[in-house]
Amino acid sequence: TCCASVAWAGSDCRTSKDIVGTAAAADQFQTLVAAVQAADLADALKSDGPFTVFAPTDDAFARLPEGTLEKLLDSPSKLRAILKYHVVAGELDASKVTQRDSAKTLLGQELSFSSSAGVKVNNARVIAADIRCSNGIIHAIDTVLLPREDIVDVASSAGEFTTLLRAVEAAGLTDTLRGEGPFTLFAPTDDAFAALPPGTVERLMQNPEALRQVLTYHVVPGKVLAADVIKLDRAKTVEGDSITIDSSSGVTVDNARVVKTDILASNGVIHVIDRVILPKRLDAK
């Protein structure tokens, strides 16, 4: 693989292999290839593209805190988000990277570029550039890039949304809530789910369509902070129905009390509520 160790000055060395094949054939990207496969992104990175991949080397992955990689490999949705943060649509060779300040990744978040002292992508140094593939280009970097925490990450870190996150996964909405958004999530706590009639959560988990209706009824498009919420009496949800907002004595959303506000994420905001709210068309059944 003549391109495996090219310098930043670039090379016109080309390969008939796609990005995944090129990375697999190089010695320094074995962890990255394993992660791409674990995150179910291999087919995407084998497609026409073109893509630009800022590829952490095996040494970069080895420098992550102990246990981090293993945890990521056990969490495909989070791993997928991190890997998408390393990929830009289109082909940015070395000369284009040095002419730009930033680029939007497939995750929706921006990478920043600087070339005042070597070339850096966020806090990572580019150690080999212009590794050309049949469907794009690879630049090797010495550090794994970590995106700002999205709504799913923030909810996971909070520790009180275990049931909500399990439901989001069962409904196939994890990647959506990791998307660009922005979203406003009125998030029921574990206690809120536990307060539902016995068997309700289990029945919803076995009915993805109804579960998706319930969950998207908790999501409002856009980033609606608490100061804006109290100015509203209704807000249309992603599910399609509107929630009723009452700020006359505290803030309630339908029949749920807002107990914590403005938990910020990279792609929106979370407001914590003490009850699960149901869309009218489902509640009437």
Describe this structure in words.
33% of the residues lie in helices and 25% in strands. It has 15 helices and 14 strands. The chain is α+β, with helices and mostly antiparallel strands.
Care to give the gist of this entry?
33% of the residues lie in helices and 25% in strands. It is an alpha+beta fold.
Low-confidence stretches: 1-13
How far apart, in Å, are the first and last alpha carbons? 62 Å
% residues in beta strands: 15-25%
Strand-and-helix sequence, N→C? HHHEHHHEHEEEEEHHHEHHHEHEEEEEH
Q: Biggest sheet: strands side by side, in what order?
A: 2-1-7-6-5-4-3
Total beta strands: 14
Quaternary state of the chains: single chain
Fraction of helical residues: 25-40%
Structural class: alpha+beta
Radius of gyration: 22 Å
Mean pLDDT: 91
Biggest beta-sheet profile: 7 strands, mixed
**Individual helix count:** 15
Shape: elongated
Which SSEs are present, and which pair or pack?
Elements: H1 19-25, H2 30-38, H3 42-46, E1 51-56, H4 58-62, H5 68-73, H6 76-84, E2 87-89, H7 94-98, E3 102-104, E4 110-114, E5 120-121, E6 124-133, E7 136-141, H8 151-158, H9 162-170, H10 174-177, E8 183-188, H11 190-194, H12 200-205, H13 208-216, E9 219-221, H14 226-229, E10 234-236, E11 242-246, E12 252-253, E13 256-265, E14 268-273, H15 280-283
Helix pairs in contact: 9-13
Describe the structure using short key phrases.
alpha+beta; elongated; 14 strands; 285 residues
